[in-house]
Amino acid sequence: MQRPLPVQAWTGRTRGGVGLFRGCAFLLPYVGRPGAWLGSFIIGGGFLLLGGRRQFGMVDYWRRLHPGMPGGLVLIRCWRHFASFGRILCDRMLVYLRPNDFHLTCDPGVEALRQALDSRQGCILLSAHLGNWELTGYWLPHFLQHRHPIYLVMVRDDLPFLQQFVDQRLRGADITVIDPRDGLAASLEIVNALKAGHPVCMLGDRILGEQSSCTVEFLGHPARFPLGPFQAAVITGVPIFSCFLVKTALSDYVLQVDPPWRLPQEARGPRRERVLTAAVRTWARRLESMARRYPMQWHNFFLFWSAPERRLRDARPQLPSRTRI
Predict the structure, then answer these.
(1) In this structure, are residues 235 and 265 in contact, taking their beta carbons and an 8 Å threshold?
(2) Among candidates 210, 198, 206, 202, which has minimal Cα distance to 231?
(3) Which of 79, 132, 231, 236 is the one with CA 20 to 30 A from 261?
(4) Helix 17-50 vs helix 71-97: angle between axes, to the nearest 10 degrees?
(5) What is the distance between the alpha carbons of residues 133 and 287, in angstroms, rounded to a whole number?
């Protein structure tokens, strides 16, 4: 029987430290996209050799995605996976330095999002750590012609230098960051932004601390997903747009936006729990389809599954003692 893997806590901090980040930021303007592509394999190999226990989440992912894959092939996939993430990080800098070198294509679903925002209808942009989600925040204000304030829910606990570096280059005056660690304040800010007709970008594939969550099946095994985006949708009645910005070539990205969906505005109780559970299942299936289509681009390197050898027993939402939203 497979032994349970050690539990990891997600801190929201960039790996590698300031030194590695400074070195890459210095070299990127000179080496460009080809150099970033080559360097990603070198740095990815270093992380693979030195990452220690932090590799378990990635190994677990590939074993669930392809059961029975030989161990050597798993390590090769992990190496390529780290390299893929390195290229994604480099693109965030290169897009800022040389925006004309990149090409963004929007699928037809983007027009429904534009219409919702033009009518001042609040909405939730639900995404995940798949593709280059932070570049969405860079391109979205340009796509909306800077007519809409955008709210982004994310943990601001990175190293101060890195946080300031990213803020200055990828987030301008159009974007307001909501830190979810203060649950009550964040909940109020999210609801107020949605009711005022603004878009709120939320990620649905990581749980911070004691956030409310729901356990559903993902890649054939039970996994916990955050409830925050769906609770906000139930309370406010705004539509949810599932969206992903995926890399399709060395300098090409595609923004995929699904048709909007709404959740019934149920009062607290069993009926709301059933609505939330169904919504999380729908989201988990959508994320799984994207992870299978772009397996190298789901950059969630932490242990994601709650019980490697246990059946899914209870899919009801798990709420902390002081439920937010």
Answers:
(1) yes
(2) 202
(3) 132
(4) 160
(5) 14
Helix, strand, or coil (residue 57): helix
Buried b (16+ CB within 10 A) or exposed e, 261-300: eebeeeeeeeebbebbbbbbbbbbebbbebbeebbbbbbb
Domain residue ranges of the chain, discontinuous segments joined by +: 102-318
What are the backbone angles phi and psi of residue 83, rounded to the nearest 5°?
-65, -40
Give yes or no for residue 309 having a pLDDT over 90. no
Answer left, alpha or beta for residue 237, where phi above 0 means left and psi between -120 and 50 means alpha: left
Burial (Cβ within 10 Å: 0-12, 13-18, ≥19) of residue 255: buried
User: Looking up tokens 């956030």, which residue turns up?
Assistant: 211
CA separation for the pair 34, 302 (Å, rounded): 29
Q: How far is CA 135 from CA 23, 33, 79, 102, 131, in A?
A: 21, 16, 23, 11, 9
What secondary structure does DSSP assign to 161-187, as a single string? HHHHHHHHHH--TTEEEE-TTSHHHHH
Per-residue pLDDT of 2-14, as tens digits, reads 344 444 444 444 5
Q: What is the mean pLDDT of the chain?
A: 80
Say which amino acid occupies 230.
F
pLDDT digits (tens, 9 = 90+) for 22-41: 666 667 777 777 778 888 88
Q: Could you give the CA distance from residue 226 to residue 202 in angstroms, rounded to a whole number?
A: 10
- DSSP, residue by residue, 118-166: HTT--EEEEE-SBB-HHHHHHHHHHHTTT-S-EEEE----S-HHHHHHH
Q: Is 177 exposed, middle or buried (0-12, 13-18, 19+ CB in 10 A)?
A: middle
The topology under which CATH files domain 102-318 is Glycerol-3-phosphate (1)-acyltransferase (3.40.1130)
Q: Which two tokens stand for residue 148?
A: 């809409």
Cα three-residue angle 220-241-171, rounded to 5 degrees: 105
CA distances from 234 to 178, 262, 283 (A): 19, 8, 15
